């Protein structure tokens, strides 16, 4: 299957996932994370649920391997662990410009 088809299907799956992933009484922001040194692209959902920040890695694409995965029913993640898992060495947030919220607990 063509890689463009894969990306389109993945985005459709993501939009379906997004509708189910919104926290009750909260909202989510999305951060694109690109690591130019290892060619990974992640989409991270970030938001607050009961005043506690959460992060969920939802979308992962590796440019060199042309591998794509949508991560469904994700649990909250520790960003450092997630970046280690995907080999992210250099964090670049492209949107929004502000820093990711941090858990103050």
Could you give the topology of this structure?
Elements: H1 3-21, E1 28-35, E2 40-49, E3 52-62, E4 67-70, H2 79-86
Antiparallel strand pairs: 1-2, 2-3, 3-4
Query: If you average the pLDDT, what whole number results?
Result: 58
> What's the number of helices?
2
Kindly state the number of beta strands: 4
Shape field: flat
| Helix fraction by DSSP (H/I, runs of at least 4) | 25-40%
Structural class: alpha+beta
- The SSE string, one letter per element, is HEEEEH
Strand content: 25-35%
Assembly state here?
single chain
Please provide a written account of the structure.
Helix content is 26%, strand content 31%. It is built from two helices and four strands; from the N terminus they run αββββα. A four-stranded antiparallel β-sheet has the order 1-2-3-4, with helices on both faces. The radius of gyration is 14 Å and the shape is flat. The C terminus is likely disordered.
What's this, in brief?
The protein is of the alpha+beta class and 105 residues long.
Task: Give the key terms.
disordered C terminus; 4-stranded antiparallel sheet; 2 helices
